[in-house]
């Protein structure tokens, strides 16, 4: 692989600020982001990518490629947690296996945004409707994970889920609600809405992303201690699974004729793991699962792997497959 791709990605300001956050923890600096700020930054990023995605979606229209991409997104969001579950079940109990499988079946919006920033740096175009694919892939894994728990726990006859609560957490949690809502408003207001909100939705975007990744670096470094509990099996899973999922995603992208920029974003969606929506849902519905396993693997291993090595690696594979 061309090392310049990794260097180019590594020298992206948001990525460097991620590592600045990690270093702050390692050297025991008192750097800390006040708790309400990361939540505000997270909501801003979801609003910005959702709104821009809606505007771009109305520009491109509902074409055959858009429909195929949405179907592929739904397929991967349901498929990944199923086969991940059976791999994990070889070493873990049903609860932990299902929670981690759901985590890797869902997506990381920040990894998606970082990949978009990487494409912008390289001048590679992509379509805004990929945000709709992101929105579609956020929730199904939660439902699949809970179905797996229901099917494979020995006390399944006694265990009862509150399905209204599960569905509410899956489809109406703040991240999904704001992302989908912003997407719809972008579709409804189109170019006029974009002209009105562009200074806020685009002008501040990279500054907000950079500050958010600084906080993510702090959080990820604090989670590294939890990796001692996960062992070699889960650390290997957290590195290999993104590569496998991205490979499958790239095969689908090539088959349905995506462009290179869209293919990279789709691969990143397939390869990333949720550390916000799914953990929140699992804590509520599967309290038997150990959060230090599914949060630390997604946040302290898979997330840094994807933003440092994964994104350039997937683009390298695209350059080979699409040439």
What does this structure look like?
- The chain has 323 residues and is mainly alpha-helical.
- It has one domain (35-322): Na+/H+ antiporter like fold.
- It is built from 15 helices and no strands.
- It has helices at residues 3-10, 13-26, 36-60, 64-88, 94-105, 109-122, 130-138, 140-152, 163-172, 174-201, 205-223, 227-256, 260-271, 277-285, 291-322.
- The mean pLDDT is 85.
SSE arrangement:
Elements: H1 3-10, H2 13-26, H3 36-60, H4 64-88, H5 94-105, H6 109-122, H7 130-138, H8 140-152, H9 163-172, H10 174-201, H11 205-223, H12 227-256, H13 260-271, H14 277-285, H15 291-322
Which terms summarize this structure?
323 residues, mainly alpha, Na+/H+ antiporter like fold, 15 helices, 0% strand, membrane, transmembrane
Summed up, what is this model?
Pfam families: Sbt_1. With 323 residues, this protein is mainly alpha-helical. The protein is 80% helix and 0% strand.
The parts where pLDDT drops under 50 for at least 5 residues are none
Number of helices: 15
Inertia-based shape: globular
Q: How much strand? A: under 5%
Tell me how many strands there are: 0
How confident overall, as mean pLDDT? 85
Q: What is the name of the CATH topology? A: Na+/H+ antiporter like fold
Number of domains: 1
Pfam families: Sbt_1 (PF05982)
Organism: Merismopedia glauca CCAP 1448/3
Keywords: Membrane, Transmembrane, Transmembrane helix
InterPro entries: Sbt_1 (IPR010293)
């Amino acid at each position: 692989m061309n090392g310049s791709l990794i260097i180019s990605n590594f020298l992206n300001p948001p990525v460097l600020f991620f590592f600045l956050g990690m270093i702050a923890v390692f050297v025991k600096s008192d750097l800390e982001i006040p708790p309400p700020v990361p939540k505000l930054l997270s909501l801003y990023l979801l609003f910005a990518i959702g709104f821009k995605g809606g505007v771009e979606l109305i520009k491109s229209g509902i074409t055959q490629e858009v429909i195929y991409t949405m179907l592929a997104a739904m397929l991967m969001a349901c498929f990944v947690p199923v086969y991940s579950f059976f791999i994990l079940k070889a070493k873990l109990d049903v609860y932990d296996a299902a929670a981690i499988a759901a985590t890797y079946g869902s997506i990381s919006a920040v990894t998606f945004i970082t990949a978009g920033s990487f494409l912008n740096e390289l001048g590679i175009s992509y379509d805004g409707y990929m945000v709709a694919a992101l929105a579609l892939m956020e929730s199904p894994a939660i439902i699949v994970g809970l179905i797996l728990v229901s099917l494979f726990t020995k006390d399944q006859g006694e265990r009862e889920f509150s399905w209204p609560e599960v569905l509410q957490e899956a489809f109406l949690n703040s991240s999904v609600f704001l992302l989908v809502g912003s997407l719809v408003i972008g579709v409804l207001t189109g170019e006029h809405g974009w002209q009105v909100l562009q200074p806020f939705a685009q002008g501040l975007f990279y500054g907000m992303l950079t500050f958010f990744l600084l906080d993510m670096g702090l959080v990820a470094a604090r989670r590294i201690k939890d990796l001692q509990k996960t062992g070699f099996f889960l650390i290997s899973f957290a590195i290999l699974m993104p590569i496998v999922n991205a490979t499958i995603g790239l095969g689908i992208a090539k088959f349905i004729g995506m462009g290179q920029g869209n293919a990279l974003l789709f691969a990143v969606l397939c390869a990333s793991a949720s550390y916000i929506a799914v953990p929140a849902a699992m804590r509520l519905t599967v309290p038997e699962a150990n959060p230090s396993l599914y949060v630390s693997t997604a946040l302290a291993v898979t997330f840094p792997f994807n933003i440092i090595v994964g994104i350039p690696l997937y683009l390298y594979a695209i350059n080979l497959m699409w040439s």
